[in-house]
Structures are given as C-alpha cells and as structure tokens.
Design a protein that fits this description.
There is one protein chain. The chain starts with 14 loop residues before the first helix and ends in a 20-residue tail after the last helix. Helix content is 68%, strand content 0%. It has 301 residues and is mainly α. It contains 14 helices and no strands. It has one domain. The chain is globular, with a radius of gyration of 20 Å. Helix 5 runs antiparallel to helix 6, helix 5 runs antiparallel to helix 9 and helix 6 runs antiparallel to helix 8.
Length: 301
C-alpha cells in the first residue's frame, strides 16, 4: 500500500478489482433501469416526445459513464497522463449534466402537471440528486491531486446519478413493500446509491481499517439530503413552491392535448387510498388510467 500525508493509503492491491466491479455494477444498473425506457422511446410508446433538454442529458449521462469506464482502464494501464487529460472534460460535462437534468425535469413537469398537479412533489428528488452530483464532481476536480479522495468523490458523484436507473429497477418493489411514506420514497429512489456508497465504505474498512473521510462525510451529507428531499416530497409547502409544475401549464396542456397517458404518476393523486379511486375511473379521467404497476415516477426518461 502507498500512503498519503493523511495516513490513508492511496492505493491497495485490491483497488483495481473493486473499482472494476463498481463500474460493472453501474452499467448493470443502467441496463436494467434505462434500457426498457429507451426501447419505449425508439418504439414510439413513450408518454411524450423527448425534448431537447432530455436528449442532451441522455447523451451527457452516457458520456459520463463512458469516460468513467475509460478512466478506470487508463489507471489500470498506468496511463496517468491520458487519465489527467481526459479528466479535463469534467469542466464542461458536469454543468451540462446538471443543467440538462433540471431542464428535462421541468419539461417533464410541463407535461404531467396539468394531469396531476401533485406530481410537483417529485421535482424535489432529481433536484437533490443533481445538486449532490455537481458538488461531488466539482470537489473531485479540485482534489485530483489527492488520488484517494479523488476516486471516492468520483464514486459519490456517479452513485447519485445512478439513482434513477436503480430506482426504475428496484423502486416499484420497494414502494410496494414500504408504501408511499417517508422511507418508501427515500429508499425507492436512492436505495442503489446507498448500497454502492455502503459497499465502498466496507471496502475501505476491509483494506485500510477505516473509512476515508470523503466517504464518511459524503455519506452523511447524502443521508441528510435524501431525508430532506423525502420530507419535502411529503410536505405541504413543497408542492406550493413547485414553480416548474405550474410554469408552462397552458403551453403543456395545448401541446400535449390528446396524448395517450398511462403513466404511473397518476397514482400520486390517490396515494394508494381506495377513497380516491374515482380519480382513475371518472369519465373525464378515463384516458389517464394507469396500465403499469408503478407507484411513483423514478426518473426523467
């Protein structure tokens, strides 16, 4: 092991295997969570046509995942010069990722809010993820001279943008098990992120005897942010502040009038209460019936 001034070993012989496994699990989450949604888009059965912001975000997301994979290979090949050169792409990619994600979610709210104003609650979740991603990625760029901290900050940044993929993979099952309350929303959206960060912390314990401060304090910050977002989701004040849901209401209504909707977010209106089932059976809402077994929206696709 090679130590650092903080006393934490920057490298361990098991690091290459661990980070290779992390990249592989990340791609597995992407495949299981996003491929079905991408197939719907190519098949013409998505809820609404992809706006420009969504297309930009999708390309930026896959660029991040591709660069992450290449960077891991470059470190394994000891091409640190190319690794550092490619890392400069973060300067452009991170703001594009964050801004396009928020823009795509605003477009999504324009479509769904006229059909379900309660859907504005969801905006707290991707907004939280993008703030955490941008913060972790920016710190990773600043700490690129500290290999141990840099790698773990990149890991933190990646885990939080994978939340939508893992949420689509596991979220429905978690939601059905825990219900639509605080823990159901929190774990339904971020269980994958929590599991990956926990695995990294356990790896540090097994190989260094302690958790790196980046993972320790980053994990605490993530936990507090997730709890705050879930609390906002269930609050009475957040939907009233969901300007994105109301912004473009008329435009969205005119643009998407007559569009077929089978989206599971309609269930947010009934919150799994039998007393609200007329929302799904009333003649004026008949076109909005849900035909898929999902309980809340888990991604911007």
């Amino acid at each position: 092991m090679i130590g650092t001034r903080s006393g934490f070993a920057a490298r361990h012989r098991g690091d290459r295997l661990f980070f290779a496994a992390f990249v592989a699990v990340s791609w597995l989450g992407v495949a299981m969570g996003f491929v079905p949604q991408i197939a719907k888009r190519f098949g013409g059965t998505a809820d609404y046509p992809a706006p420009a912001m969504l297309e930009i975000h999708v390309w930026a997301f896959f660029a991040w995942m591709g660069i992450l994979t290449v960077q891991a290979l470059l470190i394994g090949a000891r091409r640190h010069d190319l690794h550092r050169l490619l890392g400069l792409s973060l300067v452009v990619l991170v703001p594009v990722m964050a801004m396009s994600a928020i823009g795509a979610e605003i477009d999504s709210q324009r479509f769904y809010a006229p059909r379900d104003p309660d859907n504005a609650r969801f905006f707290a979740l991707p907004l939280t993820s993008m703030i955490l991603f941008a913060a972790a990625a920016a710190l990773a760029f600043v700490k690129r001279g500290d290999p141990a901290a840099h790698k773990r900050l990149i890991l933190l940044a990646t885990t939080v943008i994978l939340s939508a993929a893992f949420g689509r993979w596991w979220g429905a099952a978690i939601g059905m098990t825990l219900g639509p309350g605080f823990w159901g929303v929190l774990l339904g959206n971020w269980a994958g992120t929590i599991a990956l960060v926990a695995a990294a912390a356990l790896y540090d314990l097994a190989t260094r005897g302690r958790v790196h401060p980046v993972l320790l304090w980053g994990g605490i910050a993530y936990a507090l942010a997730f709890a705050g977002a879930s609390a906002a989701y269930h609050s009475g004040w957040w939907p009233a502040c969901g300007c994105a849901a109301r912004w473009g209401w008329r435009r969205g209504k005119e643009r998407d009038a007559g569009t077929r909707l089978y989206r599971h977010s309609a269930l947010a209106a009934c919150k799994w209460r039998l007393s609200a089932l007329p929302v799904l059976t009333h003649m004026e809402c008949a076109a909005l019936r849900v035909t898929e077994n999902h309980h809340f929206r888990l991604a911007i696709f």
